[in-house]
Amino acid sequence: MASFLAVWDLNLFVLLNIVAATTWYAWASRRVKRADHRSRWPLTYSACFYSGMALLAIAYLGPLAAWSHTFFWVHMTQHLIVMMAAAPLLVLGEPVTLAFRASSASTRRSLVVPLLRSRAVGILTNPVFTWVLFASVLIGTHFTGFYDWALTNHDAGMFIEQPLFLVVALLYYFPILGSNLQAHRPAPATRLISMALMMIPEGLVGAVIYFAPVVLYPSFGADRPFGLDPLGDQQLAGALMWALVMIVDSAWMMVVAAEWFTSEERRSRREDASIAAEEALR
For the residues of 114-125, what is the DSSP string, one character each? Predict the structure, then answer.
């Protein structure tokens, strides 16, 4: 463990992007507060966003980044942190809603609202499209030559693989969690079904990697200074994905279910109030 933690990778490009995104969110939050002191930006949203950015830093800076091309289980851990934890937390931070509220009235009318109501955004946030995209990336990157190519090509890993997994995850969770001013938000049942079905490709990828009798990615077959042999390392990576995604997805499904229950409670109270008002008029 000491040998693992002793090696760090502080990539300046990744660091600057994380700092820039975090700084923008903090500035926009303060701008919303200054515009209307009675309408403060919710702390829960801020906590979710900052937690997501912290997880991105953990995944792409430090020991995980340093050993991600040596151990398969480390590389898999990076992807799990980004796709299953950081991305949904960033979505729950409601950055789109924050951008809307922090914008001027003219910017909202001329840019933000037309963009949110555009056909392109409607397609990119369609839950069927995002599900197919997420599943395709999971299966396509792991069972083609892409994975090993990205491992042996620094620029491909930095500018294609890492952004790809993050963007696809953000698009998938965007219509599932939070609201983010969506024009046509899917019904809670649709969101729950989407997450339940997503366990199939996730579990499939993990199971295939775990049960494979040979090393699937030659880049991880080289000698390593310590730890498991290449095949044992691959089995650990497969086990992590196979088991953890089920647990994490179940947790996010509980978030959706809780939101569904809360919305039904609010609707029930509105109906009760309406009935009471009608009876009072009789």
Answer: HHHTSHHHHHHT
Q: For the beta carbon of residue 41, count every other beta carbon within 10 angstroms.
A: 19
For residue 44, give the nearest of 98, 101, 102, 104 by alpha carbon: 98
Task: Specify whether the CB–CB gap between 96 and 181 falls below 8 A.
Answer: yes
Are the beta carbons of 237 and 72 closer than 8 angstroms?
yes
Closest CA relative to residue 58, chosen from 5, 102, 98: 5
Is residue 72 packed enough to be buried (19+ CB in 10 Å), middle (13-18) or exposed (0-12)?
A: buried
Instruction: For the chain, give the number of residues.
Output: 282
**Domains of the chain: total:** 1
- Nearest CA among 273, 229, 252 for reference residue 73: 229
Name the residue type at position 203: G
pLDDT tens digits, one per residue of 90-132: 999 999 999 999 998 888 888 888 888 899 999 999 999 999 9
Query: 119 is in which domain, residue-wise?
Result: 2-281
Instruction: Give the whole-angstrom CA distance, residue 124 versus residue 39.
Output: 30
Which stretches of 125-187 are DSSP H helices?
A: 127-142, 146-152, 154-156, 162-173
